[in-house]
Write a structure and sequence with these properties.
The structure is a homotetramer of 341-residue chains.
Chain A lengths: L1 E6 L4 H11 L4 E6 L9 H4 L20 E6 L5 H12 E6 L9 H8 L13 E2 L2 H9 L3 E3 L3 H15 L3 E11 L14 H4 L4 E4 L4 H10 L3 E7 L6 E9 L5 H12 L5 E3 L21 E7 L5 E8 L7 H11 L17
Parallel strand pairs in A: 1-2, 1-3, 3-4, 4-6, 5-6, 7-9, 11-12
Antiparallel strand pairs in A: 7-10, 8-9, 10-13, 12-13
């Protein structure tokens, strides 16, 4: 059994890590920390875990040493505490944003503060199994991407790698309310947020930097909060080369994802479920990716969707753990999602 | 023009008062107070009023004297400030709970504190036009009922008055999230409240005391938060006399509501819209009331619905104002609601 | 491996059976029928199963013989075809309503037609593991209750059995839209059904007959469609004996459910998750049951919740299969539900 | 009083026309037709009109002559019947798509059939008061744009006219379920549509042709169904000239919309309501338009929102009527929308 700890376990990503890890046959959840709730039972804030665990939250200073530690901790704070975390575990899987961007200038530009541990940046492997599986097998430091970033990276990298995209990419991202976290403010009260179409980041959303880094292409992103608790959907547009047609593009995705357990290419000519929709992905570790071509014009529209707390966070992190520890990659992540939902 | 002020105008009931009063041809909104936002434009927190008003919030101590003042102020505080409010206006229309219950013991039992102004209780007329229209014509102090209470009173009083109900009434109330107000806590975050079926008051909800007072019958009430921003629906059950049949009951409602502008009896044998549903009432001042009888058994199920911020609050208060000042009763309250919505 | 077939697999209950059975390590799904879609891939209508199955629907007349067969078939039709189904499989698990009610008069009263196979009624064991586990171990014919009925039976039977309830029970049931099935009519279009509080059965809902049968007490039920796709919540009220207090009631539930894997007693004094809420149960096989007592009065309010397609249908049926075939009872049913959701 | 008839009055646009016209002080609704429901009361399908009208639907052949007639009739059929409609009324206001596009080739390209009345195309004035007010004053034939098209035209024309946009425009449109109409099929059942993020038109949505025609620029549009009943929001992107900065753009909008009663420019630096959101526009005739600039890059993101059934249909049509008949332009259209909602 892999002995793990979850830091920041009272939040939504933390809770999702607990849900998956408690159901994981190869893992023992040895500790779950919360600054505010230490001493309290885990199922008080994560009521879906009633009857599944008797764990109580502990304070951070009660941690000792683990095979792996998951960090569901705030941006900007995580980097200052990272040296400490690294001493606590053989493998550190970081879900904060602090070790996602390789260039400190980019970090500063998007997060507004200088990076506190630039020397560690290079030691982290990006937690994208579909792109970095081999490196992840031996990785002791893994940095998982943001929810929208992961959806964008999986949507775009196959086309970028194949050289099919020319010029910049625009991304229109839609996200549910759980992305704002369990401590969101009054702007996320139900009466304000319900049914909203809230353009909260018309430009310069932080996740665009991660997509730009992974694709090597300029990315402009807009983010809108839509009516959903879970779920991210991206509509990406790009000009493509003259050579790119439906077959080329489908081949690029198939080459990358033909054997992937958690990426499905969803692009049908008709039917109710033609393109990726986050509605059917809640709780699952799938990222669905689809595309459509403008008839007679060199443009592609790529659509991707995932559950922001699973493939956009906790599930992706556990997939990395499985790879790192040599377990079957889908262990603990078999839930396929619900329909209707 | 009737010169009015709204105290507590930054909240949801306050905003709804502003919406209705600003569109009211016989009213001038002279002041709107907010403790936190004085100096700020009203349309900053009530974005639906953009382009409709240039009003800014003021502090309470900037009020002078008005024809009428509306109090959208907290329970327990309102009663201590009431003497001051009474000096500010010829007519005071109170939307807090503090002057709804006639007996101080009942108040203390449900609100947990002694009443601070018991001598004023008798001076307030209940703000239920359908029951107290004549008294309201000359009333200078009006206390508007709570949202669920008003729905229950309008549903039950005709049957209680007609002596058709025997024994206690049970009320199952469902309510949207706006009832919790603009300052609701983290339990009302969208991610927590969305899609919830939250039994927040299994027994002893405060509004049951108002219904018991109005009907003279024992009432047991359960309150559940459902997925909606606006809207209250009540399902009430009672044993009825042997004489009570569909015709008797329909007659009791018709006698009370046949000429009422804002109460509709909705009880059909079939169709999509057989019974009252708050879904189509958002923004309107209607309270729909319907009923069904158990075949062969002396029981009635009464269903009522309204928009908690309108007929359950601000709209009802403006209807009282219209009566008090001799205006056509529907002035400013003509919006019929939307379908679909 | 248990070889199973699902009849009526294109509907919502059928799809949920497929989801659970495909992920079940002891089961092989050998056939899935659909009248309309035979020849088409299963994941066309159940897109959550993409990448999990290559099964296609077949016609009913292509079935041969199976260890077990699940019937997600319409009421009234199932009873006429039952002799045929019984020849197809060692174990028949029926999710239609046709073999739930023991008395043919009751069936006729609620379903409007005479029962077509009264001689078979006694041969079916009710699919309620919590009440009939021993009989289910040897049962070849199992009839699973309706979604709201199951929630009511699990809520009420422990108190009824313990003799704590006096007199009739009233049940206020709320249900999501998936209960109307994949072939629901235009009254279930999103624009009509979204945000609705639709009292579609003010009296005489069919499920009340199942609750009355299981508790031996008179039950009056009202059913309201609320904004949700999945989920049923019941608020039940009953007068109780003078001896019944919180301890007695809790003891009655503990005696029945202390060791049950899928029933949790949820009744807290405070907190966000005091009582059962279907919101956190989507996809899970839990039925949560809670209660509250009126201070100083002999009344209980019992609240229960479940996912209508899982513990209210497909999951419960698979739990019965596990019992019948001697597998660990939770096999294939481990998904705990999501929070937030 | 202007005597009007509504053709196709049982649908959602038809119902919204009735809601507005019945509340309009200068209009008498003399007839409302429905093919399926003639003889039935209007408030049976439009329950929000209970108590507001006793009108019943009539068959089309019962119409005689009216001051104005509104056509909420299907695309492709309307053009064949237009000669007949023109004989029925002095002024025809068409809400179908058939007379929106000036070029028959474009119509055929987007609607798949040749235009049946090309000779009439030039006789229709586009129903966009903000652009064609003077022509509308004398117009007897008015063609109102589609919901998303109107939102796009109002968002983009000021910038296009001012020559600030260079190159093509991409539009990401999100729409609620009422846009699919009251006869939508099973793909719009609540269980399927609720919470969906359904990209139903990745390319070539018909409304893009209307935007291209109005702006004179190439438009690429993607349309996604989101969780809402009413509401359309567009996120439009375009490259802009080097000269275009925040001041220039704001000036372009102010020049066009400074005196418009129903277009508000909503573009704030911070706050909950920074950009247009359809959530607060239900029932109102506003179109809100906002924009954001990429720091240091010649790109603009324009956001617009409206209620698809009001400013995207019925309300806009009534605004045209008011202009045509010399009434104050806001008559009958004063409802400001609700917050929260």
């Amino acid at each position: 059994m892999i002995r793990v700890a979850v830091v920041g376990a009272a939040g939504y990503i933390g809770g999702e890590l607990l849900r998956i890890l408690i159901g994981h046959p190869g893992v023992e959840v040895a500790a779950a920390t919360s600054r505010q709730l230490h001493g309290r039972p885990v199922d008080g804030v994560h009521p879906n875990l009633r009857g599944r665990t008797r764990l109580t939250f502990c304070a951070l200073d009660r941690l000792d040493h683990y095979d792996a530690i998951f960090l569901a901790t705030p941006h900007r704070e995580t980097m200052t505490q990272m040296p400490e975390f690294l001493r606590m575990a053989g493998t550190v899987i970081d879900l904060s944003a602090d070790f996602r961007l390789r260039r400190t200038e980019t970090y500063e530009q998007y997060y507004g503060v200088p990076h506190a541990a630039p020397q560690l940046l290079e030691t982290f492997v990006p937690g994208v199994p579909e792109l970095h599986r081999d490196r992840l097998r031996g990785a002791d430091r893994i940095s998982v991407h943001g929810c929208m970033a992961n959806a964008g990276i999986l949507a775009l990298v196959p086309l970028a790698e194949a050289g099919l995209i020319t010029g910049e990419i625009t991304v229109d991202a839609r996200t549910g309310s759980s992305g704002a976290g369990a401590r969101a403010g009054s702007e996320n009260l139900h009466a304000e947020r319900s049914g909203a179409l809230r353009v909260f980041a018309p430009t310069r959303h932080r996740h665009e930097a991660e997509m730009a880094q992974a694709t090597g292409l300029p990315v402009r992103m807009t983010a809108t909060g839509v009516e959903a608790v879970r779920g991210v959907q991206l509509v990406c547009r790009a000009a493509i080369t003259d050579a790119a047609d439906e077959r080329t593009i489908r081949a690029a995705y198939r080459a990358r994802y033909g054997k992937e357990p958690f990426v499905r290419v969803v692009a049908h000519r008709r039917g109710l479920h033609r393109f990726p929709d986050a509605k059917i992905l809640s709780g699952s570790n799938f990222c669905d990716v689809g595309f459509a071509l403008e008839p007679g014009a060199p443009h592609v529209t790529v659509i991707s969707a995932l559950d922001n707390l699973v493939k956009g966070g906790a599930g992706n992190a556990v997939q990395c753990l499985n790879i790192r520890f040599g377990l079957p990659e889908t262990t603990g992540l078999e839930f396929p999602g619900l329909h209707p939902n």
